[in-house]
């Protein structure tokens, strides 16, 4: 059963744009030609986004492929599909990759076992708050938000996984 998602390349150096396209093409086993625009938050960088359709797990493969360039700011989402949770991956230079389970509304979901572990290890209310913020990817969200906002109204490329 196919699913779909979106790749947001929030910022990348111009010299890496073609490599990003090749990486996405390898995962989707289809040619990729993204429409790149200047990233207003970082005028020396470029931004692009594409919607994709493919089998469950494609989002993780796309995130792994893009992670090869630590200077890229990106997000990959995969919508839930029958029997499979949705996922969101966020990458910020210097912070690394965040992975979270995504509900139907796009919110990060924290599972029961993870919540129990966080509650058991927190020694004070501040520690609990910090652990929950980390589990929700709040630091990644905060760093990516200006880049997301700058991309409003930008063109989107539609892609389909071949295999």
Radius of gyration from the CA trace?
16 Å
Low-confidence stretches: none
User: Structural class of the secondary elements?
Assistant: alpha+beta
* SSE pattern, N- to C-terminal: EHEEHEEEEHHHE
Q: Termini, distance in Å?
A: 12 Å
Number of helices: 5
Instruction: Give the CA-based shape.
Output: globular
Number of domains: 1
Oligomer: single chain
How big a fraction of the residues is strand?
A: 25-35%
**Portion of residues in helices?**
25-40%
Mean pLDDT: 91
How would you explain this protein's 3D organization?
The chain contains 5 helices and 8 strands; from the N terminus they run βαββαββββαααβ. The chain is α+β, with helices and mostly antiparallel strands and 163 residues long. It has one domain. Strand 4 (73-78) and strand 5 (86-92) form a beta hairpin. The longest helix has 13 residues, at 138-150. It is globular and about 50 Å long. The two termini are 12 Å apart.
Describe the structure concisely.
With 163 residues, the chain is an alpha+beta fold. Helix content is 34%, strand content 34%.
Question: What is this structure's SSE topology?
Answer:
Elements (H helix, E strand, L loop, with lengths): L1 E12 L3 H12 L8 E3 L2 E14 L2 H9 L6 E6 L7 E7 L3 E7 L5 E2 L2 H10 L3 H11 L2 H13 L6 E4 L3
Parallel strand pairs: 3-8
Antiparallel strand pairs: 1-3, 1-4, 2-3, 4-5, 5-6, 6-7
Helix pairs in contact: 1-2
């Amino acid at each position: 059963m196919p699913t779909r998602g979106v790749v947001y390349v929030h910022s990348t150096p111009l010299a890496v744009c073609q490599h990003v396209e090749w990486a996405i093409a390898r995962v989707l086993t289809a040619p990729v030609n993204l429409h790149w625009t200047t990233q207003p938050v970082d005028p020396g960088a470029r931004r692009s986004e594409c919607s994709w359709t493919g089998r469950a797990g494609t989002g993780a493969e796309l995130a792994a492929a893009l992670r090869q360039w630590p200077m890229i700011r990106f997000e990959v989402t995969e919508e839930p599909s029958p029997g499979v949770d949705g996922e969101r991956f966020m990458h910020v230079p210097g912070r690394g990759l965040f992975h979270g389970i995504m509900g139907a509304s796009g919110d990060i979901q924290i599972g029961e076992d993870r919540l129990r572990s966080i509650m058991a290890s927190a020694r004070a209310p501040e520690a609990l708050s910090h652990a929950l913020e980390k589990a929700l990817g709040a630091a990644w969200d905060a760093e990516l938000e200006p880049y997301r906002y700058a991309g409003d109204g930008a063109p989107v490329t539609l892609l389909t996984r071949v295999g």
